[in-house]
Amino acid sequence: MATQATTQRSLSFLQIAITLQTLTIFLQAVSAGLLLTASYGETLHSVGARVMYGASMLYVLAAVLAWKPGGGSPRPIWYATGFLVLASVQVVLGIAHVPSVHLPLGVLMFGLSLLALARR
After folding, report:
1. Phi-psi category of 97—alpha, beta or left, where left has phi over 0 and alpha has psi -120 to 50?
2. How many CA atoms lie within 13 A of 120 on its CB side?
3. How far, in Å, are 54, 73, 106, 111 from residue 100 at the CA level?
């Protein structure tokens, strides 16, 4: 009974982490638009990048915590780690000012994060 409650709580934390990640990626798209039109857009996009990266790390932590107590499939850990790798590439591309890859990768990340959210 306690294991089921722990697993349920871990799944809820995992759902929250995926939701947060998806939301932060979406807000990065909004701040990218502001980057082109407003003086504060660059600051907002820069801060948002850090928050999005933190959300990706939180997703990895939540996936590990959901897997460990219940002994379920480690597949969510691979998904979360993949997102963290994509987020790392995204940050490097953003710093290097490579919008031809940075923007499509952001769209891909949002789509994949939305898909992961829908699967939960």
Report:
1. left
2. 24
3. 24, 36, 11, 18
Phi and psi at residue 71, to the nearest 5°: 65, 25
Tokens standing for 81?
A: 């780690």
Q: Which two tokens stand for residue 105?
A: 């990768």
- The two structure tokens encoding residue 31: 């701040």
Q: For the whole model, what pTM was predicted?
A: 0.85
Distance CA 60, CA 88 (A): 13
Distance CA 36, CA 30 (A): 10
H helix runs in the chain, sequence order: 2-37, 41-70, 75-95, 99-119
Give whole-number Cα distances, 71 to 9, 10, 75, 112, in Å. 14, 12, 11, 25
pLDDT tens sequence across 61-84: 999 988 877 677 789 899 999 999
